[in-house]
Design brief:
5-stranded antiparallel beta sheet, 185 residues, Alpha-Beta Plaits
Length: 185
């Protein structure tokens, strides 16, 4: 074989080796890049997930702080008992002072016979009381409602239904009240 042919075959072999090396290099570089791309995508998803978890934690922490403020206020304002008899005794006292005779008192302690918490506020329970009152003067009813509003134990009148007298002006034949009594265990 002549030297130029030998040289040609040597250059051809070197070129084939270089091309093969480039193909192998690109193959491994591509697989490494795909692996890195997957790792980056996973890391980015983790970062977004962690940011979402942090935002959720911050909003939960804010809600807890607000509930602690509410609980602190409730502990200062509400009496330290859940005895329905004391709440009903207060209502009876207010009715006697205002000259609004109560015919019937009934109360609903909530679901399953236990006190419930309004909007899930820890440390506060609500007792729903229904009152049926005998005939009374309108001004006396207003006085009774004012006493409920101003009392130490927090009560909220949720509904009032009155039936005025057909014969005597200013007289109410019947009054039905619904009252939420807030208690602190």
């Amino acid at each position: 074989m002549s030297p130029p042919k030998k040289f040609f075959y040597i250059l051809l072999g070197i070129n084939l080796l270089l091309i093969g090396g480039l193909v192998i290099t690109f193959y491994f570089a591509d697989s490494i890049a795909a692996k890195r791309s997957t790792e980056i995508a996973v890391a980015k998803a983790d970062i977004e997930s962690n940011e979402l978890a942090i935002k959720s934690f911050q909003s939960l922490e804010k809600a807890i702080q607000q509930n602690q403020e509410i609980e602190t206020i409730a502990s200062r304002v509400l009496p330290q008992d859940t005895e329905q008899t004391k709440a009903l005794a207060e209502l009876d006292k207010f009715s006697r002072e205002a000259n609004v005779p109560i015919r019937q008192i009934s109360f609903t302690p909530g679901k399953g016979g236990s006190l419930v918490s309004p909007t899930n506020i820890k440390g506060v329970s609500v007792l729903q009381v229904s009152l049926q009152c005998d005939p009374a003067q309108y001004e006396d009813l207003l006085d009774f409602l004012k006493k409920i509003e101003d009392n130490r134990r927090r009560m909220q009148v949720t509904s009032v239904a009155i039936t005025p007298s057909d014969t005597a002006p200013g007289l109410l034949d019947r009054t039905n009240l619904s009252i939420d009594v807030y208690l602190r265990p």
